[in-house]
Amino acid sequence: MNTASDHATRCAAGTAGEAGQRLRAVPSAGRRAACLSLLAMLTLSACGGGGTGDATTALPSQPILAMIDPAAINIGSVGWRTSTRDAFLLAAKQINDAGGVLGKRLNAIALVARDNAEAQAMGQQLLDAGVTILNVSTSTRVLNLLPQAKLKAVPILTESSSSPTLSTIADDDLIFRIGVSDVDATPVLARLAWDAGKRRAVVLVNAGDAFGAGLASLFTPAFQALGGQVVQTVTIPFGQKNGFDSYLKQVYDARPDVILNGILAADISANVLNEALPYQNRALWLLPGTAAGNQTFLDNLADPARIVGGAIGAAATIGAYDNPSYQGFRARYLAQYGAEPQDFTAPVYDIVMVMALAIERAGLLNRTASPTGAMVRAALRDVMNAPGQTVRPDDIGAALALVRQGQDVNYSGAYADVDWDSHGDIVGQVPFTVFRLDTAAGTWDASQQLTVTVPR
């Protein structure tokens, strides 16, 4: 999945020392360069990064490089939402409170990029600055950064990259997901539509996007296998925010009873529904994880009560409600930020925990307090997969102690208890949440969860 969906007009940076302080964007014509510089300086000044910081302090010429702490273990994140940034920082804070890794502080540099170009610039700067391992959100951004990551031998862990391309691309075994591929997610959407009595589908996606291409190519055979048909695929230029009537006319001319809305940005996806209101068509809106359960999608709906066909979706983007580790994560997130964790936050939280365990093991195996990205990559499956003692994020300090003692561990997270296969894809039982739009209340009904074994 790919976009600056939630925060199209703001960007943010943070370190583990701040664990969630909100930072404002720079509302100027030169916003992109200034945003990187100013937010980096704000982070350094406000969060124990080493700056003193006031209105007269000169900005560093290389702001991301200035965030690097040579005495710490440096990890980075190029996210797409402040909520996932907050989860990244929360996990790092918890690890540091437990003593850090390899006798050092875990310096978590967490950035939020509003678009693909900004993500590329941020990711390149983090790699050039020397981070050991990187979290990157969305398929297109991961694929864009892969050549640079390969040059540095830095692994990329991602929570929201569902394109099947990530499973097959020559990545030097550097890409690892904590989240499902569309190969596993799309059949769940097809089944939802079929069980709702829908038989004629139109697929709506952004042109030139890896997520949209994968979604369209996988939904068609999955829906056809059930007995349905995809009668049209309509593509909208990437980044177009309004003026959708000509595309909606193509959609409704095909006479669908269900429309798969694969538009990437949650706010833009909602705008499509807003511009469809005058049609008052009873086709069901079917939503993948880019919109299903997303608060920004809800916030941008103009009049949910007028969506006569309703909207439903399914996404494997949060943990199972009855998972004690998810419950613990939720409690910590609420205590830190005073808000419910959003979709994709539990996987990001797990990503940082696994990073820490792998860094600790890489240091042990290679007898170094500063393991390279390649060393950490080689240790990722060691700490994620069986065999080994099951460890959980609730007591990450004890888990790290086991690794330091040379014991094998098997991480079971807030998101799910999964392993990584040879492609860096997850294997195991994954919770899918069914999200139904309550059009009267303008809220999500997320009471139903399904457990799906992946790969299917």
From TrEMBL:
Keyword Metal-binding: no
UniProt key word Protein biosynthesis: no
Family: Belongs to the leucine-binding protein family.
Species the sequence originates in: Rugamonas fusca
Name of the protein in its database record: ABC transporter substrate-binding protein
Keywords carried by this UniProt record: Signal
Domain Leucine-binding protein: 82-383
